[in-house]
Amino acid sequence: MSREQALAYLEQHAERFLAELESFLRIPSISTLPEHKADMERTANWVAENLRAIGAENVQVFPTAGHPVVYGELRAVQPNAPTVLVYGHYDVQPAEPLEAWHSPPFEPTVRGERLYARGATDMKGQVIASLKAAEAAMHGGLPINLKFLIEGEEEVGSPNLAPFIAGHKDLLACDFCLNPDAGMIAPDLPTITYALRGLAYFELRVYGPKQDLHSGIYGGVVHNPAQALAELIAGMHDEQGRVTLPGFYDKVRPLDDEERAELARLPMDEAFYLAQTGAPALWGEAGYTPVERVGARPTLEVNGLYSGFIGEGAKTVLPAYAMAKISCRLVPDQDPDEVAAQMRAYLEQHAPPTIRWELEVMHGGPASITDRKSPWVQALAQAMEQVWGVRPAYKREGGSIPVVAQIQEILGKDSVLTGFGLPDGNLHAPNENLHLPTWRKGIMALVHFFYNLAD
Amino acid sequence: MSREQALAYLEQHAERFLAELESFLRIPSISTLPEHKADMERTANWVAENLRAIGAENVQVFPTAGHPVVYGELRAVQPNAPTVLVYGHYDVQPAEPLEAWHSPPFEPTVRGERLYARGATDMKGQVIASLKAAEAAMHGGLPINLKFLIEGEEEVGSPNLAPFIAGHKDLLACDFCLNPDAGMIAPDLPTITYALRGLAYFELRVYGPKQDLHSGIYGGVVHNPAQALAELIAGMHDEQGRVTLPGFYDKVRPLDDEERAELARLPMDEAFYLAQTGAPALWGEAGYTPVERVGARPTLEVNGLYSGFIGEGAKTVLPAYAMAKISCRLVPDQDPDEVAAQMRAYLEQHAPPTIRWELEVMHGGPASITDRKSPWVQALAQAMEQVWGVRPAYKREGGSIPVVAQIQEILGKDSVLTGFGLPDGNLHAPNENLHLPTWRKGIMALVHFFYNLAD
Asked: Which of A41, A424, B6, B235 is the most buried (most CB within 10 A)?
């Protein structure tokens, strides 16, 4: 096995790798639009062909109820090497509004250091980075086993992926999953995302009188459901910005000093969040920095609110009904079902006898976290330092990526998330682009990663 | 002058009076529907003809920007008698849903003791009661001066009435106004409404981040506008159900023991309000009975609430914006402009620096009240006792009747409200009906009232 041979191969074939990415980007694999169904098949086959070309075995294009899943595996030269499952998706977002693009979304165009096309960053660029790092490592003697799982429905919520994983547990058996669908914070700061928040989503309905009332004739004798709902919502946070659902923080892992120090390295301070959000001032749980609050602390947000008359003008109705959509972002080891029980307990304690309430638990999923000290995270961190010359940043993501929780639940394996797109890559927006120098460093880092894992 | 002659006349002409009411009810004078414009003219002329027939002078049908106003006056036999302005409206609500009527809405039908037709109670029956009491009193020698002001736009908010009153102050000069557009609480309990609440209506808008945010990526760092709005609303009442706007109660007239005793006579206890509203339990300002809270105490109600995503399902949006429609019902001597300033002061004191807010003052009007000890209220109370054999109930109405405030503001005169419709008269609903025995007693009471005023 020779890391050096693999890295040299990368340099020799850099032009072809870019050409392959451009070829991949030319197929408009828009998963949400039925008229692109044939393009989706074509893209799946393109990925399968590329896998075969780099020497993958057992390459298959699995049909699903939606778009196909592509699978292929590459064998390590040493029999007892670890097995890494590489996750990716070949589908992209729609390109609209087309008039906002400076070059057509499905005609990849290099301007300066960037390649512009729909999917360049999210995530065809990352899929090619993984495939080409594998190809180069094959050339140097593959130090680990690789399995590729490339789906075509991520941009529509991956409805058929969990059943596929559940139905192919043996095929997908691995030591951990590499998911390069996250990004980098800055071109000089490679990033490892090691945690994602989970979700518990509710609809809370408050009922008062049997029908809407005249607010003059009855205002003052019944508890207005909109007011009662406001009182319940207001009570869900204390003055420190802490969520008051009973037991809400019981299972939340405390942040140790080392992790807080790591998170403090992220260039995401108050000024960053003020600029990103445009809010007049920041707000949140006392005692935690913004990046800690978003990544490592659970939250409760009102996603929607409705009652009574909301049209133009005035209507003096005393509404019979009020509704709020409320969701909690969860951290490890909070459980969505337990949080639903906590929400119910809060309502039982605080809802007054003057109204009736109903709570619908809409959907949810647990948070996920990978040990930063695990050998694979350390192998990736070391690889990044070998390429960029700096220690990577460790980041917790505030949102959810369902496939990570699915792989944790179904296969029992952790994912480590990374990626080589930049924050100004215009994901899901016009003029999506890939910063090519960063992308090339990313491929190099993956090669190092594979060899580090075997060391 | 002979009260007895007038009362005898009533009995002799009872059949014709009912026939005239039926004729009046046959014209579908639906003010809100343009296709009934000709019917509106026809109804106005019908009223003018009836006024002329009973001996009114200076009868005029005044065109307005909408439907006509009918005027006519009757002279007392004594020169220095008081002048009463009788207010009424000849328009009715639409009759839909037609299939719910047991007999056609514009074919008046007597079943048992009730007359069924759209407008029977609201308020063609009351207009005819006033006209026929005047006709009978003319026969006995009219003891007071009467002026009739019968409009055609009450069911559409009387948009042209205030300008008409302002433009005809001399014509409408009077000692007080009789407004029979209120009703009776029960067939054996004649009712005088001596106070109406006013209104101050607001739209409160709360802004946070510059655009909707992903609740995972930003939940925990910005103050959710829906949550901030809920906190502001929750703070607008204290635990005693009192409104917390600064100075809100400063000008509210205290209830004296005598008035509380009068209000306690009303058969509107907790059980009544529970049955009427269907609320699980009553709610309101501590220390006051339901009927006091609705009539004599100011309130603050949320009329509408909106933020974020309110469709089916789940969307993890952190909304940039939240809105509430909020209105206060006012009692004498609260001023709508002062209440707007109090709302603004509350928001300035309580809105956190993490959000921006805007308050739109939409519309409002003052409360009105008539002295229960005034000679005309006493004259009406006595008349009711003469007919029913019981002291009338004195009621404060929780809603607003704009014409009462307009007459108080423009002419400087108080109104006394009564009427002979019953709570089960289905106002604005299918099968509207008039309880004929009560209606006939009402006409008798008005005759007594006219004579009592001159005594």
From this structure: B6
